[in-house]
Structures are given as structure tokens and as C-alpha cells.
Amino acid sequence: MSESSGQVAKGGVVTELVTDWGEDKEVFKVHWGKAMMWIFLLSDTFIFTSFLTGYMKVRTSSTMPWPNSSEIFALSFGGEPIPLILIAIMTFVLITSSGTMALAVNYGYRRDRGKTALLLFITAAFGLVFVGMQAFEWTKLIVEEGVRPWGNPFGAPQFGACFFMITGFHGGHVSGGVIYLTYVAIGVLNGRYEKKGYDIVEICGLYWHFVDLVWVFIFAFFYLW
Amino acid sequence: MSVSDTGHQEHPLSIYLWIWILLFVLSTFSYLVDYFQFQGALRWNLIIIFMMLKAGFIVAIFMHMTWERIALISAILVPPLCLLVLIILMSIEGKYTKFQRATYFGLEEAPVVEHHGKKAH
To answer: What is the ipTM of this complex?
Structure first.
């Protein structure tokens, strides 16, 4: 599957790397916007890892029991509360949106404007659903459970600060992504990218997949730990 | 497929659909880890394995890393390795802080303990 290594790959990976960096011209043979998006995402990786590392530090150094996320985020639909069900649904919503995004990128390069725009709108809609569920979760925690950044009724007071910072920052990214996707989708519909090419769909796709990627780590470390 | 000279990433739809299904299955598995209340080393191993698989598939296929040139791959994937240093340092620091707190301030009780089963801390 690595046929994309292009013409330089004769001497293997090392030669390719050295040639690309030593050519005295562009290093990344991709659309400039894509290279920039990747570098932005790299910086975002550092931000989220710092958040999660800070959370780990605070949690491992706490002498009080850490609140049990499995119970806090349980929901009951009439009967017994199902542990963590809200978070599971949010995870599936985000993965579904990642799938529709991948398809949008594909149809973009096939210049199928209708399908691309439709898939982008669907992706943004799933993003909105996700943010809505997060708003519900926050409201429940703040209003009903009395969780605050400086304390909560379940245990270690640092729980609130970690929760609001990490999920808040991620939710902010999702919200920003919804606006970004909507903007691109409208552009696709209007034929704004007919001349420039549809790299923009792949670029905003990278951003959206990254948001999903971050959620994978938040789900594992914050909710399942 | 594959047009790396123009930077376009166009691949058969079936790849995306397969990865999509796979991500669903992996997410279900990681949820079931909590649902069936696996504990201890088994829980951790399962969580980390499912997490890494999901992250890997998203980056490799959905974000097209598999098909990129090595110059871009290395520029993006190598720098985060220094985050490992931060993580290791902070995990040592966390244990040390806890040890100091327990030694000088003693272990505290939670104000309201409402733990039904699971995790005896």
C-alpha cells in the first residue's frame, strides 16, 4: 500500500528522507494547507497530552479516592442505571462522524459536489449531536451532582478541574470543527473549490479525525481509568 | 489510487468502510471492559490495546498517514516522542507527591463515599 512513495524511493526510506529534506526547496510534497494543518495538529497533540499528563499527575498524587467515572456517567432509561452509557453513545456518534468525513474526502476528490457537501453536513450534524450531549452531561454534573472545578461530593476535589478542562477543551475543538465543516460544505455547494481543487476537504478532514483521535485517548484515560 | 505527486489521497471506499466497522467493534470492546467491570492489570491492558489500535487506524487510514511520504510522517510522528519523557517524569513525580502527602498530612477520607462496589481505593 506504499506505492505513493513516488519516484525517489529507489534507495529506500532513508534516501527518500534525506533527499526530501536536503533538496533546498519544499520538503513536504503535499498541498501547503495540508502541511500547515498537520503542523497545527502536532501542536494540538502537545496541548492535549499536557492536559492528560497533568490529569495523571494530579490523580496519582491525590490522597483522596478518585470519583468513580463508571457511576458518575451512568444513565438510567427507566430501569437500572447503565454505567458510562452516555459516554459510549458519544463515542459512537464521533466515530460515525469520522466515517462520513472519510467518505466526504473521497467524494471531494471525485469532484462529486452534491455528495461531498451532503456528507460534510452530516458530519457537522453528528458533531452538533456530540456537543449537545456534552452540554447535557455538563449540566447534569454541575446542577444535579454539584461538581465544581474546586470540589465535588464524590472524592478528590481535582476531579472537577480535570474534567472541565479536558472535556471543555475537546468540546471547544468539536464546536470549532462544526463551524469549519459547515463553511467548507457551503463552499463545496457553491463551487468555491472548482478551480482551487478539493484539498480543502481533506484538510478539514484531518482536523476532524484528529478531534476523534483525541476523544479516543480521553475515553480511555478519563472515563475508563 | 495513490497520487502522491499531487498530494491527493484517493483510495477505494471499501478501505474506509472496513476501518469504520473496525472502529465500531473496538469501541464496543473498550466499552465492554467497563461494562463487565474487568479490574487490575487485565483492565489496563485491554484499555491500552483497544486505545492504541483505534488511534493507529484513525491516523494510518482516515488521516492517510500510511500513504504519505516519510518526510511528512517523521516530521509529525517523531516530535511527540518527547512527550513520553514528560509522561514518565510526571508519573514519578505523582507517586513522590502522594508519598509525601501521605507521610506528612495523612490519607484523607472522601466527604461522601457513595461507591457501590468497584474500586476499593
So the answer is: 0.86
